[in-house]
Every structure is written in structure tokens, then in C-alpha cells.
Amino acid sequence: MISLRSLLVGDNSFIGVSHLSQARARSRAQELDIDAIVRVVYSAIEHGATGFTFSTHPTNLQVLEYMKLNPGPKFQLYPVLPYAQGYVRTANEKGTMKLATELFSKLAPSTKVSSLLQGGLSAITLDPIRMLKSYVDIELGSYLRVKPENTDLGAILLHDILTDLGVAFEAVHFFEAFIDNIRKRYTAKPGFVTRNFVKFVDLFERNRLPLRDIVIMCPFNKVGFQMTPTKESCEECLSKSDLGEIFAMSILAGGYIPLDEAIDYIRTLQNLTGVVAGVSTQQHAQETFTSLKPLLTPR
Amino acid sequence: METNVGVIGLGKMGVLHSAILNTLPRTKLRAIYEKNRFLVKAGGAFLPKTIRMYRDLDSMLAREPIDALFITTPIHSHVDVIIDALKSDRHLNFFVEKPLASSYPQARAACKAVSKLKCVHMVGFQKRFSPIFQKGKQIIETRQLGDPVFFRAHSFSSDVLKEGKTWRFQKGRGGVLLDLGPHILDLLAWYFGEPKPLTAVKKRFYSREVEDYVHALVSFDSGLKGYVDVCWSMRNFRLPEISIEVHGKEGILTVTDDSVTVEMSGGEKKNWYKQSFNTPIPFLLADPEFTKEDQTFLNAVEGSTSATPDFYHAAKTNALIDKIATLSQKTSK
Questions:
Q1: How confident is the model at residue A183, as a pLDDT?
Q2: B10 contacts in chain A (CB < 8 Å)
Q3: Would you state the pLDDT for residue A119?
Q4: Which residues of B touch A195 (CB under 8 A)?
Q5: ipTM value of the model?
Q6: Position A109 pLDDT exceeds 60
Q7: At residue A30, does pLDDT exceed 90?
Q8: Which domains does chain A have, with CATH numbers?
Q9: Would the CATH topology of B3-126+282-308 be identical to that of B128-281+317-332?
Q10: Which residues of A touch B280 (CB under 8 A)?
Q11: What is the distance in angstroms between the CA of the first residue and the CA of the last residue of chain A?
Q12: Measured between CB atoms, which of B12, B22, B285 is closest to A88?
């Protein structure tokens, strides 16, 4: 019998993301203003969600500000950073070099970027670990300043683009630094979003990184959408590995799978501890979380 | 046997391919060549020590036993890199990010450079590896729509909503036709054969030196006619988006990055989403198509076979882009 600790409402519909249809995402995001988004989240919480997971997209900063001024029920926050598409946009518009120097000057403000570009480079040490730590603090800072009072931090998660780059390059020190920074500076668990769950677990196991004390958020759905390398290998990894909190995302594969079928599949995954579901209206929130609520461990 | 790989350029696509290549079986990412000192330093700091950074292509090819190069530099430099790399003694195979070149004469130079070599060459038209676009091709080839009579296609993004500063916005090097045009034009050629542009117009919205929008009327030998719109200054496109709508005598086919829809004249409607097709890949970053195209190229290198789309296919896309650019120049005068 599956027994979940967390049910999270996700932010995809609020920031124009749909894994089923970009056209649908565009029209939906244009329909929702901040007040409507907050009402959808509060509706999800009232009907069973225990938390809200969101990327550090500017819309979500407004959402938190609004929630702070208009308190709702008590729930947990699971920020995911960064909002990667924003950086891709900067790279397209200004080039990778400009993106890198902008980031660098943000993280090491004492260094003049002009001196970086004009040959003072050899004197400068790029310390990836220190940069990662300051990046997390800067990126999170503005969101934490507007954290609503009746919320607490469940976990702080690294976006799948960064996690999966780290997995690809086996950046063990990078993962260690992220975990260490979150543990020391925040009252939240470190977490990672990944679309390469099996490789992620393998890397952590081989390098004795702490799998039991982190949150992993990764796709689990009936059709195997984004389950890499295969659906079966992800299921086997989930059942056999000694893991901490595992949150299934993309359970509806972007709306492709009906909710009841998605829940039937989720019930077969014994080691799951949480589920993320995106919703776009109050009614949708009510339907989805009323159906998911029976999966929660009674409190 | 491992294939030893070098990546040229550490921009967005260089990072993407480097990451994928570092995870693939029987593949060893040995080195990255990048001209920019800051990016070389950043690469050295962030990437594993097993991948060596170079600022000089000759040194990289002299010191590293490289079998295949992934060229991800700005478009106008692709062909120079290929020609420079071929001066080394190594037997090299080439994967080049799309488009092959910034003009047809350049693309022809690339074809000439590899024409007498037994090497694998491929260009990164990754949309051909999307099961959605493959399904669209299958529907057209099995003539489910009857005779195709009209199409409309677009490639839109919100990448340029103010004047940009990079090579993408420099005359002769960039513009939306070279940026978003190659994928949609390659797909149309893949679906229907060689496109013949009849007329074209272009427009600048934000850029000073290059076009932000191009509209082209195109015909095919079969008699099929239609138009293509390419614009990188549309609002509210979080991701670039391609759409091809084909009207046949028996039905309508719509293919986008997300789905394939067929509406038959009798009223029957069928939908396929990308979720309908899950083919296993060893590693997922951005879209699965990037891993699939890299695997296709590396399998060809390993088996000493050929890979599609190769330089010759890609040169045709460059020829088409040049023709559309020339036509739009005439109408804009």
C-alpha cells in the first residue's frame, strides 16, 4: 500500500509550460493573473496538497508577494532554481560570453567585468564551488524575503538542466557543495530535479553522496515519458535503491494520461514519498488533489 | 573500441553536445577547443579534468587522438574550422551544428573538402530525429492525405524582442532565415522533395543589420505550393515552435513540435503526441532528439558507414536559404 508524505502543486501552467502543447501553454498563461494563480494554489492546498513547488521565474516572485499579503492555509514551499529558460534567452540574445560575464559579475561583484574581458583574466580564480554557493544565495534571496509567514521550506531543489549537466560531467564536488550549502544556510532539505534518475542515483552511490538525506524529483508515469533510460530501469532503481524522499513529477505526462490511470500507476510505486501535479484552474485543482489525497499517509 | 571526440566551441550547443557525449557508451570526450579566454577558463574550472581545454585547434589535434569533431561555433566559422582541421594528419569525421554554412558557396566548399575523404559527415538537423516529425513524414509518404495541394508552415520564437548584440545580428552572418529557417526548410525538403522558392519578403522589427521576419512562397515538383513564415520576434513563445499544415485532397495534416493531427475529409480525426512515442535513450538533456542524432553520427563513425542528413543534404538547405534571401532582397527594394 503506497503511503505518501507530500503532495505538491506545480507551477507549469502559471509560467507557460505545457509538455503536451506549447499553444495550450501560451493561451493558458495569458489567462492567469497573479490573483488567479494564488487562488488555484490555495484551492489545491485546501483539497489535499501539502506544498507548492515553483521555479524562480519572475511570476512566482509576484505569487509569493501576493500570498504574503493575502495569507492562506499552511503549506510547504519547494523552490526550484534557476528558471533555466531565462538564461537560455539571455544566451540567445546576448551570447554565451555575455551571459557568463553577467553571471560572474553578479556572483563576484568586486571584480570588474571589463577587466575580465581585457586581459586581467589570468589573475582571477574561477572557484566553481564558491560561485555555486553565492549563486544559490542570490537567486533564493529575493524569494525568501517575500516568503509568506504560514509557509515553511520543504526543500530547495536544483533545476534539472543543472542537475543533469552535473550528472553528465560527474560533477561530484558541485553536488557536495550544493548539499552542504543548503544544509548549513537553510532549514530545508537539499533536492534535485532530474530527468536522468538512474544515472543520478548511480553517480551518488558510486561516490558515496548522501542519497537518503535529499529530495529527488523525477518523472514517473504510465507511458514512460521522460523516464531515462527506460521506464523499467527507473522503476527498478526506485524499488531497489536505498533512497530518501522521491517525488514523482510528470505523472500525467503533461496531460496525456487521464488522472485515474495516472493514480493507478502511482499506486504501484512503493518507494515514492511524494507526487507533484500541475493544475491550471480552481476546479482542476479540486479534482486533482481530491483524487490524490487518499494516497497520503493519514496524519 | 572507443570513439575519441573533440567539441569545437563552448557556447550553448557546445555545452549541450559535450554533456551528452560525456555520457554515451563507447565514446570518450577528450577535448574542447574554444577561442574565448574566459570560456576556456570557465570550462577548465567547471568541467572534469578528463576533458582538456584548448585555445588552439592545431595543438588540440596534434596532442589528442581525436576521431570525430563536433563543430558548434558561430555559423560563419563552421567551414573554416572544417578546412583547418583537415590540415592535420588525423582521419577526422565531422558533425556540424545546423546550418552547415552561412552561404551556399561556403557550404559547397565544405562538401568539396570532404568529397574525396572516406569520412562520416553530418549536420545537426535534429528535428528529423523527433518521432513526431517522423510520423508526419510517414503519413505523407503513405499518401493518407491523397494528393497534397497546399501547405502553410511556420517557425516562430520570442528570441528577439530587442536589438541583439551577437554575430546572429550581423549582416552576412545572422538573421532569422539562418537561425530559425534551416530546420523548417530542411523538414519541408525531407517531406516533399526539393523546394523551389517563388517569391519572398522580409522585414526588420528590432535588428538593424538583419531581417527579423521572412515570408516565402514555395513550390514543389509535385505541384504542391504553400508558404513559410519565419520570425524570431513573436511574443509569448517560451520555446521556438515549428508547425507544418498540409492540405491534401483527402484530409489535413498538422505537425508541430508537440503533436501530429490528421483530420480526414470524412470527419475522422487522429492525434499523436510526443508522449505516444518513447524510445529509450541513454541520457536526456533538452530534447531526446539531440541524443539520438549524436548516437546516429557516432554509430556511423564506429561502423564506417554514412549518416543522414550529411553535408550534401545540408548544402541544399543553404542553397535554398540563399535563394529566398535573394528573392526577398528584390521585393524589399
A1: 94
A2: 96
A3: 46
A4: 284-285
A5: 0.93
A6: no
A7: no
A8: 6-83+140-295 (3.20.20.100)
A9: no
A10: 228-230
A11: 16
A12: B12
| DSSP at B120 | -
A85 contacts in B (CB within 8 Å)? 238-239
Q: Which uninterrupted H or E stretch holds B93?
A: strand B93-97
**What helix, strand, coil percent values describe chain A, rounded to 5?**
50, 15, 30
Residue pair A225/B275 in contact (Cβ under 8 Å)? The answer is yes
* Residue B278 distance to chain A (closest CA, Å): 6
Please answer yes or no on whether A25 and B238 come within 8 Å at the CB atom: yes
Is A126 near chain B, with CB under 8 Å? yes
Q: Given this structure, which CATH class describes domain B3-126+282-308?
A: alpha beta
Residue of A nearest to B161 (CA): A93
Per-residue pLDDT of A141-173, as tens digits, reads: 889 999 999 999 999 999 999 999 999 999 999
Residue A208 reports pLDDT greater than 50: yes
Give me the residues of A, 62-81, that contact B with CB < 8 A: none
Candidates B242, B284, B290, partner chain A, best to mutate (most A CBs within 10 A): B284
Is-contact A170 A200, C-beta < 8 A? no
pTM of this structure: 0.92
- DSSP code, position A4: B
Whole-number Å distance between alpha carbons of A57 and A11: 10
In tens, the pLDDT along B50-66 reads 999 999 999 999 999 99
User: What are the extents of the domains in chain B?
Assistant: 3-126+282-308, 128-281+317-332
- CATH entry 3.30.360.10 includes domain B128-281+317-332: yes
> Grid coordinates in use for B159?
528570441
